[in-house]
Amino acid sequence: MWPANRVANRQLLAFSRSIWKSSTQSCLPNPSPQKDEEDRNGGDVKNVTVQKVSGGQGDNFAPFRFVYPEFLPDPRIDWRNRIREKLERVDMLKRRSVVEIPEFYVGSIMKVSVSDLNAPGKANTFVGICTERGGCGLRANFVLRNVIDGQGVEISYEMYNPTIQSISVLRLEKRLDENLRYLRDCPIEYSAFPFDMPQEIRNPDDPVPVNTMKVKLKPKPWCAKWQLWDLKGVEDFSDQLEEWQLKKLKTYNRINNTEHEKYDLMKIYRKTIPAEEQSEIFGEVHHQLAKLTQVLRSQKRKRQFAKPQKQA
Amino acid sequence: MASLWRSLSVLRLGNSIITGEPVCKFSHLARETNALAVTSHNLSSLMVQKRDMSRVKHRKPHPFFWWTKKRRERNDQEITEGNQAFIDQVVLDKYGPSYVPNSTGMPYISPLKEIVNSRNEWTTRSIRTGVIARKIGIYPMWGKDGKRITTTLLQVVDNHVIKFISPEECQRNYGNRFGSLGFVIVGAESADPQRFTKEYCGLFKQSGTLPKVRINRFTVTPDAALQPGTPLYATHFQVGQYVDVAGKTIDHGFQGVMKRWGFKGLRATHGVTKSHRRGGNIGGGGEKGRVWPGTKMPGHMGCLRRTMFGLKIVRINTKYNVIYVQGGSVSGETNNFVTIRDTFLPRKRFPEAPPFPTYYPEEAQEPLPDDIFDPTLHNFSEPSIYYEDKV
């Protein structure tokens, strides 16, 4: 079912807004310590979660930071306050007990239905690929992208907005990059997904698969200087760059030399929440989170027995 | 109406001395209220023009030289560990523990054996005391209609009344400046007395509390007098009420015109050299060939006391003493001190009696819930918002 033109127009507005949405994540090709950690875990995030939720000691909470990144506060010291963060987490758990916010990553395909005053039927459903995920605490948000009537549409959703009726993950997978903003400059087939896409059935204890697909960029003009981004999920596009651009790229790499950054301990410390604090934070909430996931999972099973889905 | 005028004039005078707040807002209100009982003398005193943006700044050295010196110079006395422990134990026995940052903002102890306040009925003329809070952050909440609002969290941190100064004493010290109003001095965050001077600690003799990190005075009507040592809570205020929140704005230091006044600067190209962020011309020629007073120029930006008037309280957390105020515009950085008091805006003052002179938990009929929400605000434990289809 494709939404009406009117809805698409409204979403276009949201898209144009979201284009200029400033991202908290750095756009520069910095080696992120979290990413490294993730790689070392071999993407076996879900599996570890399930096994170690009951243990709950030391660095056992490490996988939580990928499954529930919004529970970690902004590491900027001027903005931190323990009481505020605690109250925020309490509110987040309250909201999570009402609506299931499933595990998802950038690259997963999701379906979100929202109460919308101006939509026909007062509700709106959108399916798309998650291109960005950001924010912390109650400000946490993600962006879904799809193609409607040949036009790319992106909608930014706040995860804890009470007008969200349901969030479901149709295909749980990861991509190679932190965000997929470059899909804006790719052919539309990379970001087109049917609205009646069925939910893929997977074993919840299986590791989350990483989609190593490499997309192809359209010829210029682009909406960003992708050559500076160190993109991994994009085919080599150096043939599209001019000679002076390649020359400048070398200079750029020399000036913003990222080689030394992995030795800059203070920089890493300032940009991340220390592991001790993480275990403190997740130690507070992991019991409730585990309980919530259990309850929601059993509810889902019940629902499936009651109403078996039609196979096309 | 008389009380309103008194409050306004007091506020103005108080501002000129204490807060440095703009008055033009109130003179505007005065015209709206169309008061008849005001003499021309009073009116003229209200209509003193003072610019909101404060281009001509009244900077004063702070803290004032006539204030009691607060911090003690640390001299390394050679005290043995045993003696140090003995001193700590004496302080602990006498006053109880000092406030731990990032804990519940509750006062640990009330030094009062019993409340001996003479209780008065609340009238529309009454002006209650305010409280001292820390701005602990900002986060979004949603209304029942699904509309997002930004809320600022203000934690009332370990507040006690330190002293009440009667109107008579006030008049003796300040003349007729505060009319028939007195002061309540409120302190926040008890701390180790060894950090402060002997004189500063002496201020807290009457209240029986440890010396406080921060003290503030609030003008009150005599019927809202409070006994020294009374603890103040977030529930001093009610949900749905409007408050004025004052604090020191973020200090930006010496800034150019583009950041300080929002000038556009000059062009990036077309022959412009070395003046891309400059303000350009600052004065005319001819008879008025000079720089006019108040011209917007580079200078020190921020670090000024500013009040946000008429902010609505949308939620109160009684467990952690946190007040959720609508809007993200409370001045100051996170973890800064601010003062909260009932608003002076005449149309936003509460119609019903608030806890008067303050909230006493001992006298409450039943304990309050942990979280009190405004009826327009969505509680996160409620189900999602659905709009009904109007047919």
From TrEMBL, chain A:
InterPro entries, sorted: Ribosomal_bL19
Cellular component per GO, a single term: mitochondrial large ribosomal subunit
UniProt KW Isomerase keyword: no
Compositional bias annotation for Basic and acidic residues: 34-43
Protein name in the entry: Large ribosomal subunit protein bL19m
Any one of the GO BP annotations: translation
Disordered: annotated segments: 23-43
GO molecular function: structural constituent of ribosome
Keyword Transit peptide: yes
One family name in Pfam for this protein: Ribosomal_L19
Family: Belongs to the bacterial ribosomal protein bL19 family.
Superkingdom of origin organism: Eukaryota
Compartments, record wording: Mitochondrion
Keywords associated with the record: Mitochondrion, Ribonucleoprotein, Ribosomal protein, Transit peptide
TrEMBL record, chain B:
Name listed for the protein in its UniProt record: Large ribosomal subunit protein uL3m
Gene Ontology MF: a single term: structural constituent of ribosome
Residue ranges of the region described as Disordered: 272-294
GO biological process: translation
Pfam families found in the cross-reference section: Ribosomal_L3
Signal peptide span: none
Entries under InterPro entries matching the protein: Ribosomal_uL3, Ribosomal_uL3_bac/org-type
GO cellular component: a single term: mitochondrial large ribosomal subunit
